[in-house]
Amino acid sequence: MRVLVTGAGGQLGRDLVDAFADHEVTGLTRADLDVRDEAAVTDAVAGLRPALVVNAAAWTDVDGCEADPDDAHRANALGPWWLARACARTGATLVTFSTDYVFGGTAPSGPDGAPRGWTEQDPTGPLGAYGRSKLAGEALVREALDAHHIVRTAWVSGARGRNFVRTMLRLADEGGPVRIVDDQIGSPTTTRDLAAAVRRLAVSGRYGTVHLVNEGRCSWHELAAAVFEAAGRTVDLAPQSTAEAARPAPRPAWSVLDTTHARALGLELPSWRDGLERLLDELGARTR
Q1: What is the pTM of this model?
Q2: 73-108: per-residue pLDDT in tens?
Q3: Per-residue pLDDT tens for 188-218?
Q4: Which is catalytic among the residues 20, 130, 228, 272?
Q5: In this structure, are residues 12 and 56 in contact, taking their beta carbons and an 8 Å threshold?
Q6: Rounded alpha-carbon distances, angstroms, from residue 166 to 1, 96, 157, 280
Q7: What is the C-alpha separation between 206 and 233, in angstroms, rounded?
Q8: What is the residue range of 114's domain?
Q9: Catalytic status, residue 207
Q10: Which of 13, 153, 174, 262 has the fewest CB atoms within 10 Å distance of its CB?
């Protein structure tokens, strides 16, 4: 099968190229293809004639998107739309990625009154420009192409590229106190596990929207503590609130994604702790 991966220079894109290595895969970085350019997208898909396009190109700088919502829309809404339209012309399937940020910050309640994860059917309500741009991209893809997979994921880290886990390891090396928010709860996910699940999903023919994250939940503070413990690092780690962190863009307090649908499709990912340990092994950082 001929596969095109856009955004192939990013942490997820690189692992997606690896996941499809036994196919005829072409990975295009942003320097090769800027998905904000409709003509370039059309020419690339028409020229390569892939059976499958996996779009890992996105602008994920949440604070940057808040400062420039127009460019966020071009990258995260128009880019997937151009790809979906190009796929419709050539008969290709599209996989594109969305985010927990399409939901608001208040956790939904389960039958027992306890907080539950967001399902694919829950109403959306993004708090900022990043979430709005990704939600717009979802709608445009659904409108343009039937043969699509929209994969919502969250808190992604891989062995290559900038991410929370690698930042924690750097801070541990630098020494000094580390203060991490403890009032945002989510579903940490590794790019290796995500890419492997996407490979299975992409050929299933089960089109639509699905949540793919590693199983379990924690706060950013708990994730940092787990990184330091597994890496054998002694760090002056303390919690702080989202308000104290004072970031420019709003962050949802509850980013837990329900994976019932994914598990029913045979796409269950391992626990986030298991994924973290394997990521640290890949980075050569795990001692415990």
Answers
A1: 0.95
A2: 999 999 999 999 999 999 999 999 999 999 997 888
A3: 999 999 999 999 999 999 999 999 999 999 9
A4: 130
A5: yes
A6: 34, 25, 8, 9
A7: 43
A8: 2-163+187-215+255-271
A9: no
A10: 174
